[in-house]
Amino acid sequence: MRIALAQTDCALGDVTGNLERAHRIVRRAAAEGADLVVFPELSLHGYALGRVPEDTSLAADDARLAALAAHGPDVLVGLHEDGRLRRYNAASYLSDGSVLHTHRKLYLPNYLEWEERKHFSPGHALRAFDTAHARVATLICNDAWQPMLPWLAAQDGAEVLLVPTNSADGLAPGAVDTAVYWEDLLLNIARLQQCWVVFVNRVGQEGKASFWGGSRVLDPWGGIAAEAPRWEESLTLVDLDVRAARRRRREMPLLEEARFGLVQREVRRLMQEGVD
Question: Which stretches make up the CN hydrolase domain (predicted)?
Fold first, then answer.
């Protein structure tokens, strides 16, 4: 499976222009033999949506989205999804000219400069899904920071985790070094869930946010299979042996004994005690 990491910038609120650029990138990736092109979080809209004077959200079944997958490769693209009454920070997996799956971001950050609850509603489900190349799940940025979500995706059979992201530096004095945090986090996910992890971060500037790129792919042992440069646009291609996830899970069967009954009991107890 050949994946193209489309580490891109985008123009805030310019959906038409961002779609045109995405088409060009997908065509280029197709010429390089890519099976899947992965774009960053909100790649069709930009992040600071509070500065956009009108609603530019797209329905997940918008024909303009599906058209991105008409060039050959599958495409994962980030969008501000029009869910009728509600709007979502979403990523749609497109294949063969249609939408195969849409993931709605589950955990919306509200700290420092991030105020996603103003513009999005949280999603309510996480599902792994089958593609022509692998069983896949999507975690959008802050979703990957929640320990139970990569575990749930792996328990649902995901061999490849796609992590489109808008991660930035310089948001507040004393803020965490997000690049270092992501390095540790991705290593942890790949090793504990024993799967491929495809992290695609944005580049460019919006307000105080400087998006640093550094997209990468980790194998099921935690090794870095490919890495994009910092701070600049790039298209990085990497070949994945999807079967490596199954080999690793046989070598060290960390995931087999899930103890769902135990997890259910303890979660129920915590809910009864008022945690949620």
Answer: 1-242
